[in-house]
Design a protein that fits this description.
Helix 3 (about 45-75) packs across helix 4 (about 95-105) and helix 3 runs antiparallel to helix 5. Strand 6 and strand 7 (about 210-215) form a beta hairpin. The chain starts with about 25 loop residues before the first helix and ends with a helix. The protein is α+β, with helices and mostly antiparallel strands. It is built from 8 helices and 16 strands.
Length: about 350
């Protein structure tokens, strides 16, 4: 009889998105409207494009209706008018004409067939108000549109993490390792990889915390900071007594309840803007007794080549300590790796 594997809950998905759902918040709409800039920037593209187009169309129509009523109140639409009569808006005798005048006023700096006259101060004041209000609205919407295009979040999507983490020895110390790569030729400088272990915990007072965060330091060679990310690099965390994962073994790995959140903070060399990319690993995605296959090779033309077909591939560690472990546990991890 085969036993079903328990479903591992995740706080952060593999692509770095938040999996926590927010419910029962009073005044959510009011909170979003208080920070209207962030709300507009975070909008999905289909809503943002709709807002961008509707901002223009609605302001054209709104002020066109105002000009139409101003002309109506001034008596510009009456049948019997003197020959020398000057209307508020010349040649705008219908709602469509008032709409076209509003459109021309907002998008051009000169008039042709339709134009405003000096006989109607209210219409002149409305025209000035239209240009000021719509100018501010266009600046806001256009700025939010460009801010979404220039967000560092898109740059973070070109940072790749290994699908699995591995546990093996490095310089005689037991370590957990992850591999990170920059998929663009433009450099990422001042790169720093940090980790958070998310796990349930019970305090000495008996308070149970469903998600407790413990910091984990990751290093590359002998430093915690990488000057620039140009090659696929492997970062490691030493599993010693001070580690939140102290006591982790091949026997209890798959029974432990935790999630390892890994975050890469870097600065884009081209724009000097900071970006952040993240992923997470659950116990089923951590392979005990394996190591990453080499991904960097040299060619006959004295160049280095990063072959990303080997980026997620692992191989059994040649360390005698791991070779003497129970092979059934390694086969079980291999099954999880294939899935």
């Amino acid at each position: 009889m085969t036993m079903s594997k328990p479903v591992q809950r995740r706080i952060v998905s593999k692509d770095g998105h938040n999996n926590v759902r927010i419910d029962n918040v009073e005044g959510m709409v009011k909170l979003y409207l208080h920070d209207i800039w962030t709300t507009v920037v975070d909008m999905k593209w289909r809503y943002k494009l709709t807002l961008f187009a509707s901002t223009f169309v609605m302001t054209w129509f709104f002020f066109g209706v105002i000009f139409y009523f101003i002309s109506m109140g001034n008596g510009d639409f009456e049948e019997m008018l003197p020959a020398n009569y000057t209307p508020c808006v010349v040649n705008a005798k219908t709602l469509t004409g008032a709409f076209l005048f509003s459109l021309e006023s907002q998008t051009t700096i000169g008039y042709g067939f339709r134009y405003i006259s000096e006989e109607c101060p209210l219409a002149i004041f409305t025209l000035v108000a239209q240009l000021v209000i719509t100018g501010l609205a266009e600046i806001f919407v256009t700025g939010a549109f460009l801010a979404k295009l220039a967000r560092p979040k898109k740059r973070a999507e070109t940072i790749k993490f290994s699908r699995s983490a591995v546990v093996c020895r490095r310089e005689g110390k037991l370590c957990i390792m992850v591999r990170v790569a920059n998929m663009r030729k433009s450099l990422l400088v001042q790169c720093q990889l940090t980790g958070k272990l998310l796990h349930p915990k019970e305090t000495q007072e008996g308070e149970k915390t469903l998600v407790h965060q413990s910091s984990m330091s990751f290093y590359m060679d002998s430093s915690g900071e990488c000057p620039f990310l140009i090659l696929p690099l492997t970062f490691y965390h030493v599993l010693d007594e001070s580690s939140p994962l102290a006591g982790l073994t091949a026997e209890n790995l798959l029974t432990r309840d935790f999630e390892l959140l890994v975050t890469l903070n870097a600065t884009m060399e081209s724009t000097a803007a900071t970006c952040q990319s993240r992923t997470s690993y659950v116990p089923q995605e951590i392979l005990w007794g394996y190591e990453f296959k080499p991904v960097l090779f040299s060619t006959n033309s004295s160049r280095y080549v990063a072959d990303f077909s080997f980026f997620d591939k692992v191989q059994a560690s040649g360390d005698s300590v791991f070779l003497s472990n129970n092979m059934e546990k390694l086969k079980l991890e291999e099954e999880y790796k294939k899935e």
